[in-house]
Design brief:
single chain
Length: 137
């Protein structure tokens, strides 16, 4: 049986939607994972997660601050700036439910993900080394 002409492109459209949705999910999951780490640090060392309407942004910003006598910055100010587009995408992803995702708009995040994830893990690892050294004192 052969599909009518008007349905011939549906499998390709579905494949493209799956590709875009998968990429979007990975970008979302990267930032969501970092945010869980940041939230845990905030709960343990900062006295809790910011109690503001824009708490996601405030949490990220707090991680770039030195809390004198409590902890050094978890991430650099430069990394804070580089993670902001991922935070914005996280919000978009959660509110669009994958229905209006634009592959072209995600491409910059997709291209930057390997370098930014490597920097994120490196900076968090350094912070954890500080925590371990502090605990051993």
């Amino acid at each position: 049986m052969r599909l009518p002409q008007e349905y011939a492109s549906i499998p390709a459209q579905i494949d493209e939607w799956i590709r875009i949705r998968t990429k979007a999910s990975l970008l979302h999951d990267f930032y969501a994972g970092l945010e869980r780490v940041f939230a845990r640090i905030a709960q343990e060392l900062n006295g809790g997660i910011p109690n503001t309407e824009q708490w996601h942004r405030d949490l990220l910003k707090d991680m770039s601050h030195d809390l004198e006598g409590i902890r050094p910055p978890v991430i650099s100010k430069a990394l804070f700036g580089d993670l902001l587009p991922f935070l914005k995408f996280r919000h978009l992803f959660r509110n669009l439910y994958g229905l209006e995702l634009d592959s072209d708009k995600m491409s910059a995040l997709d291209r930057s993900l390997p370098a930014i994830s490597a920097r994120s893990f490196s900076e968090i690892r350094s912070f954890l080394e500080w925590m371990k050294a502090t605990a051993e004192e």
